[in-house]
Structure formats: C-alpha cells, structure tokens
Design brief:
52% of the residues lie in helices and 13% in strands. It is globular, with a radius of gyration of 17 Å. A 6-stranded parallel sheet has the order 2-1-3-4-5-6, sandwiched between helices. The protein has 2 domains: 11-134, Rossmann fold, CATH 3.40.50.2300; 151-221, Winged helix-like DNA-binding domain superfamily/Winged helix DNA-binding domain (Arc Repressor Mutant, subunit A), CATH 1.10.10. The longest helix is centred in the C-terminal third of the chain and has 15 residues, at 192-206. It is an alpha/beta fold. Keywords: DNA-binding, Phosphoprotein, Transcription, Transcription regulation. The modification 4-aspartylphosphate is found at residue 63.
C-alpha cells in the first residue's frame, strides 16, 4: 500500500481516456516517476471493471467524457465494489454537476487537464495514500456549489452524523474544513495516529469511502461555516 512518506512499492495506475494522444501523454508523464507504474489503458468506462479485476491498479485516472460508459458512471459503479481502487478524475473542464457527482460517488480527487505534469504525479501519489486531492478551482467552489443544497440535505446529514461520538464529530468537522491529519492533530491537541483512528472510525460508521465524502457530509450538515 502506498504512503505519502516513503512508499514501499510503486503505485499502479490504470489510465482511462478516450483520446489515445492523452493516454500516451499521461503514460509518459507518469512513467517518468520511479514510484509510479501505468499498468493499463482504457478508452471507455465500459472497459474499467474487467481491467481493474485483471490488473489490480491502486488508482484509476479517469476522464469524464467518454463513449458508451462515461467516467462519472464508471466511477459510481467502480466505487460500489468492495476493495475498489481510488479514482482520480482528470478532465478538461469542471461543470458543477460533474464535480458534485464525482465526489459523492467516491472519487478521491478531481483535477483539470491543464494541471502541470508534476502536480498530476503528486496527486496520483496522494490519492493512492488515501488523501483527497482537488484542483484549486474545485476547492474554491466546493463549499459554495458542490456541497450546496440547503435544508433538503441538512437534516438527513445531521441524522447520519449522530452515529459518531463527540470526538469523531470534531475530527469530521475539521476534515470538512479541508485540514490534513497533521493540522487536525494540532488544532484538537491530538496525535496524528489518533486522528487517523478517528477518521477511519467515522468512515466505517458512516459507510463512506474516503475523506472527500466525509467532508461533503459534514458540509451538508452545516457543521462548517
């Protein structure tokens, strides 16, 4: 399993994009990193389940707009499978509905295709290690748009969060503010391992895939101003 501080093995990546030139470019970018390996390619979301089962990637680098089965649908289907790899969305533009749907489906990150190559490689590493990755554009709009919705989601979200104990709720609120484990530890005067334990417990109790979904739920509940 990949970690942010010294990965013991290479991050295995499946590149999914309907443009062969884009796939070739991503293979070149990722292939330049000693700790990342592109294990396969697909031109449509319809190919993803079989390739994931065959190749066992850690991360699926997913385009959104593809024929037959688009990236949003492929992400939703993939993340429902136990033990599914992380999904990092890489797309040409960020329509608000696409951001919201991809993140709620369990995508661990959302980047635009004009992201510098070094940042794409770094994002793959972070997503593989379980850390959320959002482009600055998506981050700026996440609270106002991607998690918007008002009272129709607030009550159900608050009801779900009652499954957490007080400390887990505090930690979840900090996740909703976009803080890292280290930042949460400093804010709440906890050790980083304790923060990780609380985050893992919260995800398990709420039936969520990753920190992005937890942040969305916390914001739906109105715990973050």
């Amino acid at each position: 399993m990949a970690t942010l501080d010294g990965m013991s093995e290479r991050v295995r990546v499946l590149v999914v994009d309907d443009d062969p030139l884009v796939r070739a470019g991503l293979r070149m970018i990722l292939g330049g990193a000693a700790d990342v390996e592109v294990v396969g390619e697909a031109g449509s979301g319809v190919e993803v389940p079989a390739l994931v089962a065959e190749l066992g990637p850690d991360v699926v680098l997913m385009d959104l707009h593809m024929p037959v089965v688009d990236g949003l649908t492929a992400t939703e289907r993939l993340r429902k499978v136990p033990g599914a790899p992380e999904v990092l969305v890489l797309t040409a533009f960020e329509a608000d509905g696409h951001v919201q749907r991809a993140l709620r489906a369990g995508a661990g990150g959302f980047l635009l295709k004009d992201t510098p190559p070094a940042q794409i490689v770094a994002a793959v590493r972070r997503v593989a290690a379980g850390e959320p990755v959002l482009s600055p554009e998506v981050t700026r709009r996440l609270i106002g748009i991607a998690v918007g919705g008002g009272d129709d989601r607030r009550a159900p979200a608050r009801e779900r969060l009652r499954a957490l104990n007080p400390r887990e709720t505090e930690v979840a609120a900090e996740v909703g503010r976009g803080r890292s484990n280290a930042e949460i530890a400093a804010t709440l005067h906890l050790s980083i391992p304790t923060v990780k334990t609380h985050v893992s417990a919260a995800l398990a109790k709420l039936g969520l895939n990753n920190r992005v979904q937890l942040a969305l739920l916390v914001n739906d509940a109105g715990l973050v101003s």
